[in-house]
Design a protein that fits this description.
Elements (H helix, E strand, L loop, with lengths): L2 H11 L4 H20 L4 E3 L3 E8 L2 E4 L6 E4 L2 E8 L1 H7 L1
Antiparallel strand pairs: 1-2, 2-5, 3-4
Helix pairs in contact: 1-2
């Protein structure tokens, strides 16, 4: 599913225009990003939790050449689905 399809679903669900739905979807995504950027986690009951995890620097291999490369430490976004979401998908 692409963002435009999500906007269309939201618009039909709330019986509103696509412009209003797009603004709502953008606001939700932006709010989640801002909270994660500040270092906190976002928990949406019955849906799941978004959090930040830190990966340590490590040594990897270039699969084409086998050459050793250094991979920098970085922060990554993690998502842990909630119980209700897990049950709906299973």
């Amino acid at each position: 599913m692409y963002k435009t399809e999500l906007v269309n679903m939201v618009a039909s669900t709330i019986d509103s225009t696509k412009a209003v739905a797009a603004a709502a979807v953008d606001a939700v995504f932006e709010s989640i990003a801002e909270v994660l950027e500040s270092g906190d986690k976002v928990t949406i009951i019955r849906f799941g939790t978004f959090s930040i995890s830190e990966r340590a620097a490590r040594e990897g291999r270039n699969p084409a050449t086998g050459e050793s490369i250094d991979i920098d430490a970085k922060k990554v976004v993690k998502f842990k689905p909630g119980k209700e979401l897990k049950e709906r998908v299973a």
